[in-house]
Design brief:
Keywords: Signal. This protein is about 25% helix and about 30% strand. The protein contains four helices and seven strands; from the N terminus they run αβαβαβββββα. The chain has a five-stranded mixed beta sheet with strand order 1-2-5-4-3, sandwiched between helices.
Length: about 130
């Protein structure tokens, strides 16, 4: 990936990707360059862990993760499955997010920190994509 191969800064850096441009190999390359990379990823991408593709049905707020070579892939259940990969965030650290249940009432559910931070920094980009 051109962005990461040209990255030769001495300061701590972090890149957040949306699923359209994100592959697990990007995270491995970023890890080698000491650049933090986090992004949503589709389960049909090459090298995606098969253990997270198939398996148990999760309840809303539940998540599972696998970690290898400094890269974690997290599967979190919101209304649908959400997959995110990161070489920066500890997959065991969680936060709470507010969601509406079927009756329209607000409910706090657990959410991995990687997803909370992804939503914090990518939310505006995703909103602008909706307008195109």
């Amino acid at each position: 990936m051109l962005v990461i191969s040209a990255w030769d800064r001495n300061e701590e850096s972090s890149i957040i990707f949306c699923w359209l441009f994100y592959f697990l190999t990007i995270t491995l390359q970023a890890e080698e360059k000491k650049v933090s990379a986090t992004g949503t990823i589709r389960s049909d991408r090459k090298y995606f862990p098969t253990k997270l593709k198939k398996g148990e049905e999760l309840e809303r707020g539940d998540y599972r993760y696998l970690t290898s070579n400094g890269v974690s892939v997290i599967k979190w259940m919101d209304k649908k499955e959400v997959f995110i990969a990161s070489n920066y965030f500890d997959p065991a650290v969680e936060n709470e997010v507010s969601r509406r249940d079927k009756d329209g009432n607000r409910k706090q559910i657990s959410c991995p920190l990687a997803i909370v931070q992804y939503n914090k920094y990518m939310g505006r980009v995703d909103l602008s994509d909706q307008k195109i």
